[in-house]
Amino acid sequence: QVQLVESGGGLVQAGGSLRLSCAASGGTFSTYAMGWFRQTPGKQREVVAAINLSGSRTYTADFVEGRFTISRDNTKNTLYLQMSELKPEDTADYYCAAKKDVIVSIVFTSPSAYEYWGRGTQVTVSS
Q: What is the C-alpha to C-alpha distance for residues 57 and 5, in angstroms, rounded to an integer?
């Protein structure tokens, strides 16, 4: 069973950048498809970006508009989300998630597909 710990959140001004990290332990990281999700109070958790086992295939939500990049380093057991041009509406709790998988090409975008979740890191973007 993999454990996930997010870091890198914080307070940033609009237009700024943050890099979120998700450190995985307790499992073979390269056998997990990964994703970043976010949630604000009263709203459902939504996918921000997702990546397949090898990192060769990614998905980013439409609202990202090219501002965020998901990546992974399987040698460091770490998932990243580089966020730039942040907007106040990006304010949320950000979670990383993992799904055990064997098919290299698949990217999972639904929260219900993921089996393991971190506790989240808060991102606040001020205007």
A: 23
